[in-house]
Amino acid sequence: MVDQRRDSSTGAASNVSIDAELQRAFRPGSGASESSSAASLRASVMPPRYQTQHYFGGWTSKSRKRTTVQNHPAFNKDLILLPYPEWGDVCKHKSKRRLQENGFILNAFEMKKNWDFKTVIVEIREAFKDKIPDEVRTDTHPNTKSAQEVLLNLAAQINSDQRCRFNINRSSVLDGAIRGFKRFSYSPTSQMCVKFSDDLGMDEEAVDLGGPRREFLRLLMEALALSPMFEGRDNKLSLALDSTALREDRYFIAGQAIAVSLVHGGPSPGFLAPTLYSCIVGGNSSVKPVFQDIADADLYEKVKKVSECSSLDELLHITEPLQDYLANAGCLRPLKCIEDRDLLVQDITMFQVVHRVAGALERFKEGLKVLGVLDAIRMHPESFRALMCHEPSALTADIMDNLFQVRLSEVGSNKRRAEELVVPFWRDYLQDVEELEGPLKLGKVLAFATGASVIPPVGFSPKPSIDFLHQHSSSPKQRLPMANTCINCLKLPLLDTYEDFRKTMDFAISNTQGFGRE
Q: Domain holding 416: CATH number?
């Protein structure tokens, strides 16, 4: 019995020890009852170091709170200007310090997350200032393809088995194009079938196998540049605000027409201002227009005077007539010092060139999305810049000579000897046209043969060729050149002298317009 009591007392002490350890590790349940001995022991024991439920919450997901991560619009990077792209050495210690002392390293350069490739290059170039010489190119975009290669890939979408018709009169090309684009059955992936009529409404004798389409797209690009939807000078046009065009959604059609022309073998626009192109590529936030982009002549002169102010009094005097405009543009504010001048000019320019036409620009960009052209432009902005912003490269006699493939008869035949006599006439004619009348006349020669006055971005298909008129060479009609623009074929007359050849070429090119006309 004694041993049993000893064992029981030992067991009780052991239980108390276990309870004490449990109290140290865990908080007791709210409904648990405590013995007096356990309560006295708990009073002498240190409070638990970790209150699991108190500090970490419950075990359900609803009671957990996660810290919100702040999204910053910018980040910082150290930039090092290297001598050339293939530079492989890592700058360390002394060389790095020397570069930094000479301004070839920028520490913690701030970069915005919404910058596109072009904006990044411009900002970096401005930050390094004169450290990057002007002749050093920084416009190479990663994975850049040529515009022709990209457009040929997009042209694979065209289904030659499906056709959509455009009925066009040359005196109102844009109106006819709008009717065709708005037709319910129109699809940009269908092959375009263009039928011209003359000014009297008579159908021309042409079945569209390519030539009428190219002429239509050429005339359409010219009509867009002259339309109320665009304004500017020196072939650098920005969007104009036209209420009729907005109401009839013509800005969308203008963008669609440019996209269709690029993919369907027509010419590029070549008249967009660089600022408008930047809006298309990178959005309004990345654009930095200059007051020279303002097309309104009266407003341009007033803003120019503001930019030339040299004192606060002069600035206040010059801006007095602009108070109503500044209020409508959201630029009206007190001018306290001459330094406010530059910010005012910047705000006026941004409103006039970008914000004022924001609605029209969005519809224009929606039109450019047709056939995936806008995505291609944004992916390869430098490849498309020359097509959208500048005139195509001027035609030369050498370009024209290389463009056409001369088809000669069998070697040793009488036809071959007559053809070889005329080929030098053709090349001399091209050189004389270039020297005496320039690229414009060469464009007319190209249009006579193909229907396009410039080489399309996707090239010609089929390749332009030269054939010869052998039958009835003595007939007056056969002494004039002929062309089949559908297959890009120019047929030259077989004449004995260069003077006769030149006169017949000039007469035919100057007196022929359109298809089926003599």
A: 3.30.2410.10
Residue bearing tokens 């464009």: 443
**What are the two backbone dihedrals, phi and then psi, of residue 42, each rounded to the nearest 5 degrees?**
-65, -30
Identify whether residues 322 and 466 lie together within a single domain. no
Cα–Cα distance, 250 to 244 (Å, whole number): 8
pLDDT tens-digit map of 262-292:
999 888 898 898 889 988 988 777 678 887 8
Angle between helices 297-307 and 340-353 (to 10 degrees): 160
Torsion on CA atoms 95, 99, 100, 102, rounded to nearest 10: 140
Residues 237 and 307 placed together within one structural domain of the fold: no
**Percent of the chain that is helix, strand, coil (3-state, to 5):** 50, 10, 35
Count of domains observed in the chain: 5
Looking at the structure, tell me whether residues 262 and 323 fall in a common domain.
Answer: no
Q: Are 360 and 353 in contact (CB under 8 A)?
A: no
Confirm if 380 and 406 have CB atoms less than 8 A apart: no
Say yes or no: 50 and 83 in one domain: no
Same domain, 429 and 501: yes
Tell me the pLDDT tens digit for each residue of 456-470: 776 777 888 999 888
Question: What pairs with residue 191 in β-bridges?
Answer: 163
Q: Which residues contact 352 (CB under 8 A, 6 or more apart)?
A: 294, 296, 299, 329
* Partners of 81 in beta bridges: none
Render pLDDT for 290-299 as a digit per residue (tens, 0 to 9).
878 888 888 8
Residue 140 in domain: no
Structural domain that includes position 340:
288-353
> What's the pLDDT score for residue 477?
53
* Whether 236 and 210 share a structural domain: yes
Instruction: Please report whether residue 474 resides in a domain.
Output: yes
**Which of 132-146, 350-364, 392-406 is the most confident on average?**
350-364
d(CA 280, CA 42): 75
What is the CA 132 to chain-centroid distance, rounded?
26
- Contact (Cβ atoms closer than 8 angstroms) between residue 144 and residue 380: yes
- Alpha-carbon distance of 500 to 39, in angstroms, equals 127
245 with 374, same domain: the answer is yes
User: How far is C-alpha 26 from the geometric centre of its chain's CA atoms?
Assistant: 66
CA distances from 246 to 93, 250, 267, 369, 433 (A): 61, 6, 25, 18, 43
Tell me, what DSSP letter sits at residue 83? S
The beta strands (E) that lie in 410-484 are given as: 465-469, 482-484
CA dist., res. 13 & res. 19, Å (int): 10
Spatial separation of the C-alpha atoms in residues 371 and 266, rounded to whole Å: 14
133 preceded by cis ω (within 30°)? no
